[in-house]
Write a structure and sequence with these properties.
Length: about 725
């Protein structure tokens, strides 16, 4: 038997690494603070363009689903410990609002994400909020309704259809989207002083221990250059048999910002090893444990697989460089001239290398009724395309280069929008099993795309962003996307009401691995047509009642999905999916009750099954116990109606549509206490406690229950002073 568990020596090494990084961070903090360089795209006629960034970031609160409004922050109607300090300009709050707290009202850092294609920056919130910190450590916390295999680090899928993005070219990557590292998801920093964040969470005992370490360190070497790294280690042995998950992710990234040159660099290496148990084979151990005439733990529940696992490796390298053309303009200080960017030349390059293997040592010989002899795992599959022990592997590489020209918005008063045009070329290589050519099949495809972006992001009353791209040559010839977002704000009784809209039209080529794939148990060669998708939706935020209303509808033709036979299938008829959502936040003194409800319907449940109603409810008390300590004490629950939830096929690392078992109509309830003391956040939670008051049926996906009731602890420390 192959043991997956991380050795004590390995864990000690990781702890030593974290300690060294912490000491390095604390030693570096003693250096002289550096000046934050403002984003040149936000340069205004104001003397201090950093204030423009702060004001803009503060306005972003009105566009984010927080359990409070921006006005409630300034009116001190919520604990300000839970608000990122970088959002406030220097004169917006009284000096005594953060007494003796390290998060003073002067800005310590700015943070943003980038557009992977153009390197364009846009402001985001850092991970410093107190509200619902404990939920961010659970797979359930990433969506109102989430399906996953029960263990931290395992494959997952959102049960809200509009939460799902386009399928990746390396389709196995999608199942780990909660943990994937990508340049477009990376937070980039510019800091006055070095900043370090250490996160640790743990649940279970030595046998079923679940742990996650996360470290972030970032610092400026001068007023232009920032260098940072992130580490993310997951070691979850699992509360069910043969379920362990291990992930090691390393990321190094940097940015250089000056008037003329803006550059972002990113490199990451990730590995995932996920033991597969195929789900539990007898659900009565969960639903009616009283009929099992013996004592047992969750690890004693029988499963379909043993000694079987998926492995994923991903290496990524990314570089974006922007050279700004412009002129110098006299500022408020006559002795200094401000640089005003007019246009930019942009070059981005991205290389991605990925590999996935599916292996099994569950190879004991079994004689079938027809007298054929197969291995134990073979009995679970209809087809076997080679006789040796299962060892499926697929490799993928991609090299993408983009050249873009951009005209900046606002360099003259009459220039009310920005315009970008680009051309992009990508080379993709696939390597998979075959019965010829020494057992491997190789495929290469080239793709050339042209497109543009038209946007208006300055001003409060009206903003928009329109993006379009067209496959001009190669494998994506004829592929087309046109997407647009629009936002308008109006003041009613002195309070800002925001209305946003989104729409897109897409004609998408099928991915190569949807067309062709070879393995021991699955083998297909398809000739699918293009998928056509049309979507329109909107969102309305009402500050008077802290209510957000949103709705969207999409029409899809030639939708590709994995059917009940676990094979890619294309539905030729049109499918309509509709979703409506309401988020309501209620606050009365220290009492809070936040609710989110989503209604979904699909015109073809065989192709796109969705739960009709999904809800998240969180009732809690939030107050300051003393001047230094903020407490959030509450009870929350995720719930959705019963439906034919997707099944999971380990041999494909894919979710497929099944019509045999329904999942749902059972709340996943958590009791928790979140605390915030200066630069430290910590929580204690009791997960999945509903079965104490109702019949247990806590399945996330067919045959995959979530973890049984457990206590979990978490700690987050920020070192930035």
């Amino acid at each position: 038997m192959t043991y997956f568990y991380v050795s004590l020596h390995s864990m000690k090494e990781k702890l030593v690494i974290l300690c060294i990084f912490s000491l390095f961070a604390m030693a570096s903090i003693a250096q002289r603070p550096h000046i934050i360089v403002a984003d040149s795209s936000m340069i205004t006629t104001e003397r201090d363009s950093l204030n423009a960034i702060q004001e803009r970031a503060k306005k972003e609160l009105n566009k984010i689903d927080l359990p409070f409004s921006n006005d409630s922050i300034l009116n001190d109607s919520i604990p300000t410990d839970s608000i990122p300090y970088y959002l406030f300009p220097n004169d917006s709050l009284p000096d005594d609002l953060f007494p003796s707290d390290s998060i003073k009202i002067y800005p310590r850092f700015t943070v943003w994400k980038i557009n992977e294609r153009t390197g364009e920056k846009y402001s985001v919130l850092p991970d410093t909020l107190l509200y619902n910190y404990q939920q961010t450590t659970l797979p359930d916390g990433h969506s109102i309704a989430m399906g996953y295999l029960g263990n931290l680090g395992s494959p997952a899928i959102s049960k809200l259809f509009f939460d799902r993005g386009e399928r990746d070219h390396f389709i196995f990557y999608d199942a780990y989207y909660l943990y994937n590292k990508r340049p477009e998801n990376q937070l980039f920093f510019n800091t006055r002083i070095p900043y370090t964040q250490l996160n640790y969470q743990r649940a279970g005992g030595n046998v079923d221990k679940e742990e996650r370490f996360e470290t972030r360190f970032t610092m400026n070497f001068n007023r232009h250059l920032n260098v940072a790294f992130d580490l993310d280690f997951i070691n979850a042995r699992g509360f069910y048999a043969s379920q362990a998950a291990k992930q090691n992710n390393y990321t190094v990234y940097s940015n250089y910002l000056s008037d003329r040159i803006e550059a972002h660099a990113y490199a990451s290496q990730g590995s995932i090893t996920n033991f597969e148990n195929g789900g539990i084979s007898d659900p009565t151990f969960i639903t009616t444990p009283e009929i099992i005439e013996q004592n047992f733990t969750s690890r004693d529940i029988p499963t379909y697989f043993k000694n079987t696992w998926n492995r994923m490796k991903t290496n990524q390298f990314y570089l974006s460089a922007r050279y700004n053309l412009g002129y110098n303009k006299k500022g408020a200080n006559e002795e200094k001239k401000d640089f005003v960017p007019v246009a930019s030349v942009i070059l981005t390059s991205r290389f991605k290398q990925q590999e996935r293997r599916f292996l099994s040592y569950d190879t004991a010989r079994v004689t079938l009724p027809d007298q054929s002899v197969v291995q134990t795992i073979d009995t679970l599959y209809k087809n076997r395309y080679y006789k040796s022990a299962v060892d499926d592997s697929t490799r993928y590489t991609s090299l993408k280069n983009t050249l873009a020209l951009s005209m900046r918005e606002g360099f003259r008063d009459w220039v009310k929008f920005g315009l970008t045009a680009f051309v992009e070329h990508e080379t993709r290589n696939f390597n998979l099993l075959d019965t010829v050519q020494d057992g491997r099949f190789q495929h290469r495809e080239q793709a050339t795309t042209i497109g543009g972006i038209l946007s208006k992001q300055q001003g409060e009353l009206f903003r928009f962003n329109v993006r379009a791209d067209l496959g001009a040559l190669g494998a994506n010839l004829g592929e087309f996307r046109a997407e647009g977002d629009v936002e308008t704000s109006i003041k009613i009784a002195g309070r800002l009401t925001t209305l946003t809209g989104q729409a897109y039209i897409k004609n998408l080529k099928p991915k190569f691995l949807e067309q062709q794939y070879h393995s021991k148990y699955f083998w297909w060669n398809n000739d699918f047509d293009d998928t056509r998708r049309v979507y329109i939706g909107g969102k309305l935020f009402i500050p008077f009642t802290n209510t957000t209303l949103s709705a969207g509808v999409e029409n899809i033709q030639n939708f590709i999905y994995f059917d009940e036979n676990k094979l890619p299938f294309q539905e030729g008829e049109n499918i309509q999916v509709f979703s409506a959502r309401i988020d309501q936040f209620i606050k009365l003194g220290v009492f809070n009750w936040n609710n989110s409800v989503v209604y979904q319907t699909s015109s073809n449940e065989d192709a796109i099954p969705v739960p009709m109603l999904s809800a998240y409810s969180n009732i809690f008390l939030q107050t300051k116990i003393v001047d230094e300590l903020t407490l959030q004490l509450g009870l929350d629950a995720h719930y959705h109606t019963e439906y034919f939830a997707p099944g999971y096929e380990a041999a494909l690392l894919q979710f497929y549509n099944q019509r045999e078992k329904k999942v749902g109509n059972y709340p996943i309830v958590t009791g928790y206490a979140n605390m915030h003391l200066k630069q430290v956040r910590f929580f204690v939670m009791f997960y999945n406690i509903a079965h104490y008051v109702m019949k247990p049926n806590y399945f996330s996906l067919p045959n995959y229950p979530v973890n049984p009731m457990l206590m979990k602890l978490g700690l987050s420390v920020n070192l930035n002073n």
